[in-house]
Design goal:
Elements (H helix, E strand, L loop, with lengths): L1 H31 L14 E5 L2 E5 L10 H19 L2 H14 L11 E3 L2 E8 L2 E8 L7 E5 L11
Antiparallel strand pairs: 1-2, 3-4, 4-5, 5-6
């Protein structure tokens, strides 16, 4: 009889500690993860439209009218809901974004782009000032005209 009561008391103690751990976890979740507001539900306005001779009911066609007074408030509430729902994942978002930036190769110098239009060949080259856009008449050599050239920024002298 004594053996049974000891095992029951052990089970009771383990269930109590499990319950305490669960309370600790839920309080942790409450502290760090705010409850997300309810999803904003747009109002439905019945609008029957005819497409290819068939009637079609569109409950949300009012959203096409940008001057509607309810559209701006609905979009703001939807953006607020999305921000709250995704707020808990902001750290993961930063990690994934940095990983994508590391894997994405963006060349600093672009290959020259050549286009032919209206009897001219348009192309670009690089210079110490940056990209320079040029054009020349078709069939002519060494007669390029500068279209756009970025000016080099002047460095300001430090005042002492």
């Amino acid at each position: 009889m004594i053996v049974i009561s000891k095992s029951i008391s052990r089970i009771h103690r383990s269930s109590v500690s499990c319950y305490q751990n669960r309370l600790l976890f839920t309080s942790f979740r409450k502290a760090f993860f705010k409850k997300v507001n309810k999803l904003p539900i747009p109002e439905t306005v019945s609008d029957t439209q005819m497409h290819h001779g068939k009637p079609r009911e569109d409950l949300f066609s009012w959203m096409e009218n940008l001057s509607n007074q309810h559209l701006g408030s609905y979009i703001r509430s939807e953006n607020q809901y999305t921000h709250q729902a995704m707020h808990r994942h902001r750290f993961l978002h930063k990690i994934v974004l940095n990983e994508m930036k590391k894997r994405l190769h963006v060349p600093t110098l672009l290959e020259p782009l050549k286009t032919v239009a209206c009897g001219y060949e348009y192309y670009s080259t690089t210079s110490p000032y940056g990209l320079v856009y040029l054009r020349k008449k078709l069939g002519e050599k060494d007669t390029s005209e500068v279209i756009i050239q970025k000016k080099k920024k002047k460095k300001l002298k430090n005042a002492k």
